[in-house]
Amino acid sequence: ELTGHYGPVTAVCYSPDGHWLLSASYDGTIRVYATPAGGYASLDRVISAHDGPVSSLAFAPDSSRFVSGGWDGAVWLHGLNITSSTNSTELDGTQGLVGRVAFSPDGRWVAAATDASSSNTIRGPLNLWDVSDPNEVQVSVDWIPAIG
C-alpha cells in the first residue's frame, strides 16, 4: 500500500528504467517511490514545489529527471540522483493552469499544455522548452479553434 498524500491522487508515472514511481496529488506534493527490482515500492522523498494541485507528471527517456505541471501555473524540471536529493528548476513562461506535461522522445524538449480560459478544456498556449536552457520558452503555440 502506497500512503502519504492528503488529497486525491491526480497523476502517476513509472520511470522508463523501472526504478522510480511518482505520484502527484491535490495536496500539492509529488511522492517519489524507489522500486527496486523484485521489491516493493518504498517512499524515497516528497517534493513540495507547487503551490496547488499537481496535475501532470512525465519522465525523461533516460529516467534521470522528470517534469511536473500544476494548477498553480508552474512547470518544474526535477533531476533525480541516488542520494535522495532533488534538483528542481521552475520553467518560465506558462500562462494558466497546466493540464499536461511531456518530454520529447530524445529528452531534449519539455512541452506543457495550459488552460488560460475559464472552461475545463485546455485552450491556452502549448509551450516548449529546450531543457539545456529551461529559463526561456523556445516555442509558444496559441490554441486556435477549428473552423467549419
Account of the protein in words:
This protein is mainly beta. The protein has strands at residues 9-14, 20-25, 30-34, 42-47, 54-59, 65-70, 75-80, 86-91, 97-103, 109-115, 126-130, 139-141. The strands form three sheets. Strands 1-2-3-4 form a four-stranded antiparallel sheet, with no helix packed on it. A four-stranded antiparallel sheet has the order 5-6-7-8, with no helix packed on it. Strand 5 and strand 6 form a beta hairpin. The radius of gyration is 15 Å and the shape is globular.
Estimate the mean pLDDT confidence: 83
Strand content: over 45%
Low-pLDDT runs of 5+ residues are: none
Order of helices and strands: EEEEEEEEEEEE
Largest sheet: 4 strands, antiparallel
Write the SSE topology:
Blueprint (H helix, E strand, L loop, with lengths): L8 E6 L5 E6 L4 E5 L7 E6 L6 E6 L5 E6 L4 E6 L5 E6 L5 E7 L5 E7 L10 E5 L8 E3 L7
Brief synopsis:
The protein is 0% helix and 47% strand.
Keyword list:
single chain, 148 residues, 4-stranded antiparallel sheet, mainly beta, 12 strands
